[in-house]
Amino acid sequence: GVIEEQRPDLLNLASGAVMLEYSSEYSGWYALNLLDGGFQHGWASAKNSAFPHRFVIELVETYAIDTLVIDNTGTEERDYPGISAQEINLYAPTEAANTGYGKPLKLTAASGRFTTFKFDSPVEARWLKLVVVSNHGRTDFTEIMGLEAHGNLINFNQLFTDPPGIQLRVLGNIIMDMTNLSFSVIRPLQHD
Questions:
Q1: Cα of 114 vs its chain's centroid, Å
Q2: Are 42 and 29 in contact (CB under 8 A)?
């Protein structure tokens, strides 16, 4: 992640995040840009698309998310005042992508800046549904440049040390080197 370099960004394609659903996007400003691990390219709603705007993102496993970042720094605020997403409802189901949402966390993102939300009680989630219910006043477009989430695996039971002094954690097909704070994805072997 860009904000917290020491922990993997759970809302990153490289971490296994998948954009399952989105309500609209503008040409070149794709919803998938929110998961690209950078903040050079973002998402914009389709022109004159009505609120709410929604994104459903699947995580690789169930996590206790303690931090969520919404980046509005690269939005086109200077040329299109009020375009940055503002009020966002966060839902965190654990059983299925389209059910069990419960009561949302109501978040307010700053205009033209990073907004970091640190949760006192981590949010348990296998999927995240973000619903943008307003921006900072623009009527024709809404933009977000990027998303990040950080947390801990819920069912973490594969901690081992090998070789001595190196701590590795196995998360499905991801091996995390906790000593050097890096991770690798194990890819299946291709058979002839």
A1: 13
A2: yes
HSE, CB side, 13 Å, CA atoms: give it for residue 142: 25
3-class DSSP state of 52: coil
CB of 141 within 8 A of CB of 47? Answer: yes
Which runs of E-coded beta strand occur in the chain? 18-22, 43-44, 53-71, 87-91, 105-108, 114-132, 143-144, 146-153, 159-161, 167-171, 174-177, 182-185
**Rounded CA gap, 125 and 35, in Å?**
17
- Amino acid in position 188: P
Beta partners for residue 150, in sequence order: 67
Contact criterion met (CB below 8 Å) for 186 and 173: yes
pLDDT in tens, the chain (192 residues): 455 557 889 999 988 899 999 999 999 999 999 999 877 899 999 999 999 999 999 998 899 999 999 999 989 999 999 999 999 999 998 887 777 778 899 999 999 999 999 999 999 999 999 999 999 999 999 999 999 999 988 875 444 444 455 555 555 555 555 555 555 555 554 444
Q: How many residues does the chain have?
A: 192
DSSP one-letter string for 28-47: TB-GGGGGSSSSSS-EEPPT
DSSP symbol at 136: S
